[in-house]
Specification:
The complex is a heterodimer of chains A (309) and B (578). Helices cover 78% and strands 0% of the residues of chain A. Chain A is mainly alpha-helical. The longest helix of chain A has 36 residues, at 86-121. Chain A is globular. Chain B is an alpha/beta fold and 578 residues long. Chain B folds into 3 domains: 1-97 and 179-253, P-loop containing nucleotide triphosphate hydrolases (Rossmann fold), CATH 3.40.50; 108-176, no CATH class; 350-360 and 387-577, 3-Layer(aba) Sandwich (Rossmann fold). Helices cover 36% and strands 25% of the residues of chain B. A 6-stranded mixed sheet of chain B has the order 6-7-8-3-9-10, with helices on both faces. In chain B, strand 7 (181-185), helix 8 (193-210) and strand 8 form a beta-alpha-beta unit. The radius of gyration of chain B is 25 Å and the shape is globular. The two termini of chain B are 45 Å apart. The chains are: A mainly alpha (309), B alpha/beta (578). Chains A and B meet through helix 8, helix 9 and helix 13 of A and helix 2 and helix 4 of B.
């Protein structure tokens, strides 16, 4: 197992290298720079600033300097938040994003699997139709539409939950962002789960389980759930990536001080180091998450276990 | 309520089951009645779709409703009508008093649980055993069904076992609660003949030990000849004949039963064309008098005749090894020698049979000859050309002369293509016919040739039965007028009655088109019927290669003898002596 994990992490290095290279040059291509503002700085100060951050060097030299720093684990100072290093900002923002993203993913998983299973067991009944048409709507509405609607109803009209802010992570502040972030994924997972469950329920070993004298509930929970989860687990990788990118929008709308906020601010201010830092961090996160997904997959499907060892 | 007759275990009376489709109500089982006495075996015989599986599922209370509905009848078990029981009462009977074994051991076990927990589950459910008790008892059960080293094997997952072992696990699961009725739905159809024999023997032993009644469902009368006390023959939802097994074999009344008995190829001589049900019976069920010449035995040309034909295919020291990789860098540690130093020739117009158990390498050999699988070493010479040395372009041209027909007619046809497209595709690739219209006309002729209706060319594969689909595969293969066809288990997935028709078709085509075949099968009786010479394969090597007659009359190897012994004789033993 350890050997397998090592192999996978080694395999991720080229991916990350490509990610760093492409994003490094892409952000440099964008017009403007970190020290442009409405008021022009005196040329000498501008020059000094650029010299301090090595921005006056040729681009390839900056690139190799950056790579060298990354290898040593140094993301550099932020251009915008001048008292902080990028690492410090990530350490500050990540727990907030992790809470929202993690809870959203977990919530999407639990709700999606439950609703999908329900729809599959009651296939072609009104339960199925209502659930699936709702899910279709859920998939179609983007989160930047859902979020204001949620705020409008639950915060403005009903005043049940705060309209934004973080409140040091109190649960009341979590509800709306998590809901806005996860609805899409609940809907998608529910549809995926329904399809997978229907297929599994028609398989021969479900017939065997029924022939053993198990009840429908026992059959579904003990024999069908585990194999039916497999497509969901493969979807978790893309879903996690989607939730991470989705959280950029959601954090902005709800004014939550997470990684996404920093990322958007960084991009607007041409805060090269901050944007790069967040990109690399998210890249690593997605690689690690996909590794976890594959390990989970091996746990669900014993056939895969054999091929890895 | 007790039934008058205490010796009766199960009595099905006037059972009618219908299925509702979008268009109509289909009758799957029509007014079926038969009895199973305690401790006796009843064989339920019929072709796919005759209603035999539906009958058994009705007994288990496992007919999905809707779309199914039981419109009349009773299923009396110890005198009590199972159809009147609640779902909860039925659950206590299922797996406990009445249990069932299914056809496909590959898919009938849940792939994600250890077999130990799958067997234990029944015991914990019905016998109230603790986890540990059930686990230990399961080890004992595995031992009873002849799984070697049950203490280790109980922790295995289904994919770590062979097909035969999986079926033994299914049996262990079924007998765990010592049921008094065991329903077996084609339990050996998916298995090799040698494994089939072992499993059948095991079931007989267990039946005696637990004094179970058995309902044995099969499409092959030969399989139950030695097993059943009574035989019930079903044809198109109805029972056409039921009687004691001896009476059925000695003196079958219904033409369908006669056809079923006759269509099975025998080891000791066959008629020129295998008889089929349609020789005995019209579509509407009226009996046909079979003319005497149809029974005339086939006389195979002797060996000298074959050798005088020119050689079409020459296989020299062919090896196909698969590397077994391991370690951090995936280095090759050893090899699976699927085909190991095989040499033989095939003459023009000949049929060479290749037999052997699953995993003996016969399929890999076939695929390597066509270069669908890369050879490790050795060469294959087809009509004077070394196939292994051809580049892509010349190989493509060669392929139009060499075709393959696969085992599974269900998965080897693209479900999204019409039959017309399926048949004309290889023609278009190999430049047969001027345009699509002309190819379509050729396809119509091909459909006619394989006894399918030309107007069905615009239908999709799912609208055809298994036998019809295999005919489509044959039409696709012969459409580009090849010289040489490899038939890889091409009739193994078919009912015996359909198998005979397809075998006849293959023989007709051979004569008409001067085809050369390699016929791969695990069933020696089929290979014996169709082949001029037979190669017996074991562990990647050909251990014996002789004329079919020689192999059957005078097998040189124990392995060959063992394969021969495993074939069901197709007639009850005690009748054979007379």
């Amino acid at each position: 197992m350890l050997r397998y994990m090592l192999k996978r992490i080694m395999g991720a290095i080229p991916t990350l290298f490509l990610l760093i290279t492409i994003s490094f040059f892409m952000i440099r291509v964008a017009p403007g720079g970190p020290f442009d503002s409405e008021k022009d700085l005196p040329p000498q100060i501008q020059k000094n600033l650029e010299a301090k951050y090595h921005l006056d060097e040729p681009l390839h030299q900056q690139y190799f300097r950056y790579l060298g720093n990354i290898v040593q684990g140094d993301f550099g100072p932020s251009f915008q938040y001048k008292d902080f290093t990028v690492t410090e900002l990530i350490v500050k923002g990540f727990p907030v994003s992790l809470t929202i993203g993690g809870v959203a993913l977990l919530f999407a998983l639990i709700m999606g699997v439950t609703l999908g299973t329900l729809a599959a067991v009651r296939q072609n009944s009104w339960v199925d139709y209502v659930l699936m048409s709702t899910a279709m709507t859920g998939i179609s509405i983007p989160n930047f539409v859902i979020a204001p609607l949620l705020i409008l109803y639950f915060a403005v009209y009903r005043d049940w939950f705060p309209a934004g802010g973080w409140g040091d992570g109190q649960w009341r502040y979590l509800v709306l962002p998590v809901l806005a972030l996860s609805l899409r994924y609940i809907a998608y997972i529910a549809r995926l789960m329904r399809g997978s469950m229907i297929e599994i329920l028609q398989s021969d070993y479900i017939r065997t389980a029924k022939a053993k004298g198990l009840s429908m509930t026992q059959t579904v929970l003990k024999h069908a759930l585990k194999p039916a989860l497999m497509p969901i687990v493969s979807y978790l990788g893309p879903a996690a990536a989607g939730i991470i990118t989705g959280s950029v929008v959601i954090e902005k709308i709800f004014g939550v001080p997470g990684l996404g906020q920093y990322f958007v601010q960084g991009a607007l201010n041409r805060d090269y180091t901050l944007v790069m830092g967040v990109i690399i961090f998210i890249g690593v996160l997605i690689v690690v998450f996909n590794l976890i997904v594959d390990i989970l997959y091996a746990y669900l499907d014993p056939k895969i276990r054999l091929e890895q060892t | 309520m007790q039934s008058k007759d205490d010796s009766l275990l199960l009595s099905i009376q006037d059972l009618t089951v219908k299925f509702k489709t979008q268009e109509e109500l289909i009758t799957a089982v029509n007014n079926v009645s038969f009895d199973i006495p305690k401790g006796k075996t009843v064989g339920l015989v019929g072709e796919s779709g005759s209603g035999k599986s539906v009958t058994s599922l009705a007994t288990m209370g496992l007919i999905p409703m809707p779309p199914g509905q039981i419109t009349s009848g009773k299923i009396l078990y110890h005198g009590e009508d199972l159809l009147q029981k609640t779902e909860k009462e039925m659950r206590e009977i299922r797996g406990n008093k009445i249990s069932m074994i299914f056809q496909e051991p590959m898919t009938a076990l849940n792939p994600v649980f250890r077999i130990g927990s799958q067997i234990s589950e029944v015991l914990r459910l019905h016998k109230g055993m603790t986890k540990k008790q059930a686990w230990n008892y399961s080890i004992d059960l595995l031992d009873q069904v002849g799984i070697p080293d049950p203490k280790t094997k109980i922790k295995a997952y289904p994919h770590e076992m062979s097909g035969g072992q999986k079926q033994r696990v299914m049996i262990a699961m079924a007998i765990a609660c010592e049921p008094d009725l065991l329903i077996c739905d084609e339990p050996t159809t998916a298995l090799d003949v040698t494994i089939q024999k072992q499993v059948l023997e095991l079931m007989l032993d267990l039946q005696e030990k637990y004094h179970m009644g058995m309902l044995f469902i099969t499409h092959d009368l030969g399989v139950i000849a030695d097993l059943a006390d009574d035989v019930v023959v079903m044809y198109r939802s109805n029972i056409v004949e039921q009687n004691h097994v001896h009476t059925i074999f000695k003196n079958a009344k219904h033409p369908y039963t006669k056809g079923l008995i006759a269509c099975r190829p025998m080891l000791d001589g066959n008629p020129k064309r295998l008889l089929t049900v349609s020789d005995y019976m019209e579509e509407d069920g009226t009996e046909i008098e079979v003319p005497a010449e149809k029974f005339e035995p086939m006389i195979k040309p002797d060996k000298s005749d074959i050798d005088s034909h020119p050689v079409l295919l020459e296989v020299n020291n062919l090896k196909t090894w698969f590397p077994v990789k391991g370690g951090l860098f995936g280095r090759t540690q050893s090899h699976v020698k699927a085909v190991d130093d095989v040499s033989f020739v095939v003459h023009k117009g000949e049929t060479l049979g290749l037999v052997g158990e699953s995993g003996c390498g016969k399929t890999t050999l076939g695929r390597t000859i066509l270069r669908l699988q890369k050879a490790t070493s050795g060469n294959v010479v087809f009509d004077g050309v070394d196939i292994m040395k051809q580049d892509k372009e010349s190989m493509r041209k060669l392929r139009s002369r060499m075709q393959i027909i696969f085992q599974d007619p269900y998965s080897s046809l693209n479900p999204r293509m019409t039959v017309g497209d399926i048949i004309t595709e290889p023609m278009a690739i190999h430049g047969k016919g001027e345009n699509q219209k002309e190819r379509f006309l050729m396809a119509q002729a091909l459909m006619d040739k394989v006894d399918l209706k030309p107007q069905h060319l615009n239908r999709y594969p799912h609208e055809f039965s298994g036998g019809q689909r295999q005919r489509i595969c044959i039409a696709r293969a012969i459409g580009i007028e090849p010289d040489f066809i490899i038939c890889d288990e091409s009739v193994s997935a078919l009912d015996v009655s359909v198998q005979a028709q397809v075998l006849n078709l293959l023989q007709d085509l051979q004569q008409e088109m001067g085809l050369t075949y390699i016929f791969i099968s695990h069933d020696l009786s089929v290979v014996n019927y169709i082949s001029d010479r037979v190669g017996v394969m074991n562990q990647g090597k050909i251990v014996e290669l002789e004329t079919a007659k020689e192999i059957y009359e005078n097998p040189q190897r124990n392995y060959t003898q063992r394969l021969l012994d495993a074939i069901p004789k197709g007639v009850p033993k005690d009748l054979l002596l007379n």
